[in-house]
Amino acid sequence: MNDFARPLAGHSALIIGGGGEGIGRAISRAFAAAGAAVAVADIDPERAGAAAQELTGRGARALALAGDVRSPSDVDGFVRRSADEFGRLDTLVTVVGGQVAFVPAVRLHEMSDGDWDLAYEMNLRYVARAARAAIRVFLGQGGGGSIVSVGSVAGVMAAPMQAGYGAAKAGLNSLARTVAAEYAADGIRMNVVTCGAIATATANAEQAGAEVPEIPLRRLGAPADAAAAAVFLASPLSSYVTGQSLVVDGGVTVRGPFEV
Ligand SMILES: NC(=O)c1ccc[n+]([C@@H]2O[C@H](COP(=O)([O-])OP(=O)(O)OC[C@H]3O[C@@H](n4cnc5c(N)ncnc54)[C@H](O)[C@@H]3O)[C@@H](O)[C@H]2O)c1
């Protein structure tokens, strides 16, 4: 019988990029509220520490980890230290990503090789590396595991001025399908929370709470909207769901050419 009140009770999770004020922090809070022990990894040690302290203050087990997803040893270390601290690891969540924060928004013919590589590195390469490390832990401990990655509608629609970001996020959906197929028999699932525009401290902040006519549900998403999807995909509530993209976009990707 599923625990609908605390669907992650007894679980332990690593959230990479969980320390800021955006989607990752909302996921950290939601996972703790759902009953999980949470390791918060972030490039900013103060953000990771503040997030872990907040969760501990709410009665959850929490661990702060500082490191950079561009460092292979940091990524492997996030996974190893989480599993060591909690005794096992049930869920990996990858949140870090983006393009405009890291590289200029330009059309493809103006994009440098370095910028392309950075978009790939920040949105897909580290995710594959973290997933590999988590899968090794899941296989070693037995009992399966779940991987949830924060993706974007830029990976399923055109991504003007963000070609590298869009291609990398599309690759995330492919990675989820492949992991799903390769490890289904081991009880390991991977799914993507495909976000539309979410209002965070660093993105779309001025439109938070405003009426947005272009979006069928008339508003931007909140970090908590993405977090609710992540809890579902991490938990046994979604035990028959793998390799999927759960689109959290207020209906943008299903809007047709006709006005309602
Ligand atoms: N906000 C949106 O509108 C939106 C839309 C679609 C998809 N997304 C996706 O959501 C995810 C997070 O977005 P957000 O808006 O919450 O971002 P954010 O900037 O609020 O949070 C990202 C966190 O990652 C940390 N971080 C940055 N670089 C890092 C590195 N090299 N190593 C480790 N940690 C690092 C930051 O310190 C921060 O705490 C991304 O994958 C993004 O593509 C966001």
Automatic annotation (TrEMBL):
Q: What stretch or stretches form a coiled coil here?
A: none
Source organism, top-level taxon: Bacteria
Q: SUPFAM superfamilies annotated for this entry?
A: NAD(P)-binding Rossmann-fold domains (SSF51735)
For whether the record's keyword set contains Cytoplasm, the answer is no
Which Pfam family, any one of them, does this sequence belong to? adh_short_C2
Keywords (A to Z) from UniProt:
Oxidoreductase
Q: Which InterPro entries match?
A: NAD(P)-bd_dom_sf (IPR036291), Sc_DH/Rdtase_CS (IPR020904), SDR_fam (IPR002347)
The record's family statement is: Belongs to the short-chain dehydrogenases/reductases (SDR) family.
Q: What is this protein called?
A: Dehydrogenase
Specify the species: Paractinoplanes deccanensis
Read off the lineage from the record: Bacteria, Bacillati, Actinomycetota, Actinomycetes, Micromonosporales
